[in-house]
Design goal:
This is PP2C family protein-serine/threonine phosphatase. GO terms for molecular function: protein serine/threonine phosphatase activity. Helix content is 33%, strand content 26%. By secondary structure, the chain is α+β, with helices and mostly antiparallel strands. The protein folds into two domains: 139 residues, GAF domain (Beta-Lactamase, 2-Layer Sandwich), CATH 3.30.450; 177 residues, 4-Layer Sandwich (Phosphatase 2c, domain 1). Strand 1 and strand 2 form a beta hairpin. The longest helix is centred in the first third of the chain and has 21 residues. The termini are far apart. The C terminus is likely disordered.
Length: 395
C-alpha cells in the first residue's frame, strides 16, 4: 500500500486555504483507495464535531454527544468502525502541537492493515498543520465551528487566543472560555520557548465589548514585553502602566502570570489580584497560596514581585476565574466551596484537554444549565515530570 503522507502534504501546500478538505480527500482516494474522506471540526464549546464540507448538514447532529468520532477525538487515538458491505471507516485525530482541531474520517473498502492506518495518521497530521495555518486565511473552518452567532466581544476573545491546548515537553496545557458565544473579558494566553512555558490568565472586568477591548490591550501589552525578552515582572509592569495611562485607575484587570521551567518543575508567578490556583495531587485538591498584589492598571507605576512554587511529577494545576470559583446560582453556596473540588477530582484519569470540559460541564450543571451570570475561564496544566529533573522545589 503506498504511503499517503507525502502526496497529501504536497497537495495541501498547493491547495487554496479554503479547499484543504477537498484536496486531502482527492489524494486519499488515489493513494489509499479511499471510498471517501470527511473532515469534522470541534465547535467552540467542544459539544460536538461538525462536517467542514457541509456544516449545516443534519447528520452532523448524531456526532455531537457520543459515537466513534467522539471516541477518537477524546482518546486522540485512531478508531476503526466496520460498516455495511465490509467497508471500514477509520477515524483519526486532527491535532497539532497538542491542540485538538477535530477528526478525519477515511472510509476504506475493507479493513485496513497497520501500515495503511499509519499512513492515514500521517496524512491527518499533515492536514491538521495545514488547517492551523489556513485559519488566518479563510473563514471556512471557523464557520463550521460555530453553532450560533458570536457576539462582537466573543469574536475578539476567540481571535486573541493562542489556541485551546498545547503540548510542550512534559506539559499538557488546555483552556476553555464560557459562555463560549458571548464571553467578554476573561481570557488566557501562553507561549512556549525552549524549556520555558509562559501562561497568563485574566479575570476580566466589565461586560461586552468594553471588557473585550480592555483584555485585548492587556494581553498585547504583556505579549509586547515578553516578545522583547521581558521577564514576568516586566510583562506585568508594562501591562499595568499601559492600562493605567489609558484609564487612570478607573479600569483594572486581575491577572495571573506563570512561567514554568519544564525541566525542573519550578513555577515562577506574579499574582496581580489574580484568578484562583488549585493543585490536584494524589486525588486531593488544595489551593496554591500566593501573595496577592495589585491588579494591573489600578495605580501608576505599580511594581511587582515574583514568587516560586514547585510541582511534583503528575501534578495538575487548575486556574479558574471568579466566574467559576464564586458562581452562586439560585442562592446556593459558591461553586468553589465544594462542588468545584469534586469536579476537579473526577478528572484525575482524564487528560487536561478533557478536564477543562468536565469542570465547565459541572459548572453548567451547578447552574441547572441556565446561562452563566459571569464570564468563566478554566485553564488546566499537567506536568508529567521530567526524567532530566534532579530535584523539585516544593511548597
Amino acid at each position: 500500500m503506498p504511503e499517503a503522507s507525502g502526496p497529501v502534504s504536497r497537495a495541501l501546500r498547493t491547495a487554496p486555504p479554503d479547499q484543504l478538505a477537498e484536496a486531502a480527500e482527492a489524494v486519499l482516494r488515489q493513494t489509499l483507495g479511499a471510498v471517501r474522506a470527511e473532515v469534522f471540526v470541534a465547535d467552540y464549546r467542544f459539544s460536538g464535531l461538525w462536517p467542514v464540507l457541509d456544516p449545516d448538514r443534519p447528520d452532523g447532529g448524531p456526532l455531537r454527544a457520543h459515537g466513534v468520532a467522539q471516541r477518537c477525538f477524546s482518546s486522540q487515538q485512531p478508531v476503526l468502525d466496520t460498516v455495511d458491505d465490509g467497508r471500514c471507516r477509520t477515524y483519526l485525530p486532527l491535532s497539532v502541537w497538542g491542540e485538538r482541531l477535530g477528526v478525519l474520517m477515511v472510509e476504506l473498502p475493507d479493513a485496513p492493515d497497520a501500515v495503511t492506518v499509519a499512513s492515514a495518521e500521517d496524512a491527518a497530521g499533515d492536514l491538521a498543520v495545514a488547517m492551523r495555518a489556513a485559519d488566518r486565511e479563510t473563514d471556512r473552518y471557523r464557520r463550521a465551528r460555530r453553532r450560533e452567532r458570536l457576539s462582537m466581544a466573543a469574536e475578539m476573545q476567540w481571535d486573541l487566543l493562542p489556541g485551546r491546548s498545547v503540548r510542550h515537553g512534559d506539559v499538557l496545557l488546555a483552556g476553555q472560555l464560557e459562555p463560549a458565544y458571548t464571553v467578554g473579558g476573561d481570557h488566557f494566553d501562553w507561549s512556549v520557548d525552549g524549556e520555558r512555558l509562559t501562561v497568563t490568565v485574566l479575570n476580566g472586568t466589565g461586560n461586552g465589548l468594553s471588557a473585550s477591548l480592555l483584555t485585548a490591550v492587556t494581553v498585547n501589552a504583556m505579549r509586547n514585553a515578553r516578545r522583547s525578552g521581558g521577564s514576568l515582572v516586566e510583562q506585568a509592569e508594562l501591562a499595568s502602566d499601559t492600562i493605567f495611562y489609558q484609564h487612570r485607575g478607573e479600569r483594572h484587570v486581575a491577572t495571573l502570570l506563570l512561567e514554568l521551567d519544564d525541566r525542573q518543575g519550578v513555577v515562577r508567578a506574579v499574582d496581580a489580584g489574580s484568578p484562583h490556583v488549585l493543585r490536584l495531587r494524589g486525588g486531593r485538591v488544595t489551593p496554591v497560596t500566593l501573595e496577592q498584589q495589585l491588579p494591573l492598571g489600578m495605580f501608576a507605576e505599580t511594581r511587582y514581585a515574583v514568587q516560586e512554587f514547585g510541582l511534583e511529577p503528575g501534578d495538575r494545576l487548575f486556574v479558574v476565574s471568579d466566574g467559576v470559583y464564586a458562581a452562586e446560582p439560585d442562592e446556593q453556596e459558591p461553586y468553589g466551596n465544594r462542588a468545584m473540588a469534586r469536579a476537579m477530582r473526577s478528572t484525575r484519569l482524564q487528560p487536561a484537554t478533557e478536564a477543562v470540559g468536565t469542570v465547565m460541564r459541572e459548572l453548567h450543571a451547578y447552574h441547572a444549565d441556565a446561562d452563566l451570570r459571569d464570564d468563566a475561564v478554566v485553564v488546566c496544566l499537567d506536568w508529567r515530570g521530567s526524567s532530566r529533573s534532579d530535584d523539585v522545589v516544593g511548597q
